[in-house]
Amino acid sequence: GSPTLPKRVFKIIVIGDSDVGKTCLTYRFCTGKFPEKTEATIGVDFRERTLDIDGEQIKLQLWDTAGQERFRKSMVPHYYRNVHAVVFTYDVTKGRSFQGLPSWIEECERYSLNASEIPRILVGNKCDLKDQAEVDTNSATRFADANSMPLFETSAKADSEMGNIEAIFLTVAHKLK
Ligand code: GDP
Ligand code: MG
């Protein structure tokens, strides 16, 4: 057969408050499944998946980070070192997780040397609970536009939303290619 092309590997960090679903999103994207049970991430977990983008093998190495301060402090510089893209995540049912986004963006700008050049994506998760939403799509769209990020509203839980989770990372992969 033909020789396999070398893979290009990209580091993507998933950032946001505790409990917004960062672990579920990355797990869902990398395994296709919603985890039965998650525990608070300590430091960082790694998951990866290779996408075929126009015949090119693009390996996305996802850094699923801890949202809680006590697990993060010493890790933060590692998160942002040589990062290729950042996925900012909030929970549509928790207004606080949306209001917390500016401080995550500020952290990113403080720690990544090339913050203005790396692709950034905004994800509103738990859309299966839309009836309990505290963050409406209009406000989220305005915030995304103001920060030059595309917005994806997703659910790591609902099977019907898998397409939108794929779309997050396809968008990232296309931007990085
Ligand atoms: P993390 O702290 O940001 O990594 O959040 P987790 O991925 O550990 O998820 C926190 C909680 O939210 C868990 O109880 C998950 O089952 C739940 N969860 C995550 N994603 C979704 C979602 O899309 N919909 C719903 N309803 N629950 C979710
Ligand atoms: Mg987690």
Describe this structure in words.
This protein is an alpha/beta fold. The protein has helices spanning 22-31, 69-72, 76-80, 95-99, 101-111, 137-146, 162-176; strands spanning 8-15, 44-53, 56-65, 85-91, 120-125, 151-153. Strands 2-3-1-4-5-6 form a six-stranded mixed sheet, with helices on both faces. The longest helix is centred in the last third of the chain and has 15 residues, at 162-176. 37% of the residues are buried. The model has no long low-confidence stretch (mean pLDDT 92). The protein binds guanosine-5'-diphosphate and magnesium ion. It is a lipid-anchor. GO terms for molecular function: GTP binding; GTPase activity. Keywords: GTP-binding, Lipoprotein, Membrane, Nucleotide-binding, Prenylation.
In this structure, how is the largest beta sheet organized? Answer: 6 strands, mixed
Oligomer kind: single chain
- The shape, in one word, is globular
Strand content: 15-25%
Helicity, in percent? 25-40%
User: Unreliable runs, pLDDT <50, ≥5 residues?
Assistant: none
What is the residue-averaged pLDDT? 92
Q: What is Rg?
A: 16 Å
Total beta strand runs = 6
SSE order, as H and E? Answer: EHEEHHEHHEHEH
Strand arrangement, largest sheet?
Answer: 2-3-1-4-5-6
Q: What distance lies between the first and last C-alpha atoms, to the nearest angstrom? A: 25 Å
Bound molecule kinds, no repeats: guanosine-5'-diphosphate, magnesium ion
The total of helices stands at 7
Structural class: alpha/beta
Membrane topology: Lipid-anchor
Main location: membrane
Keywords: GTP-binding, Lipoprotein, Membrane, Nucleotide-binding, Prenylation
Family: Belongs to the small GTPase superfamily. Rab family.
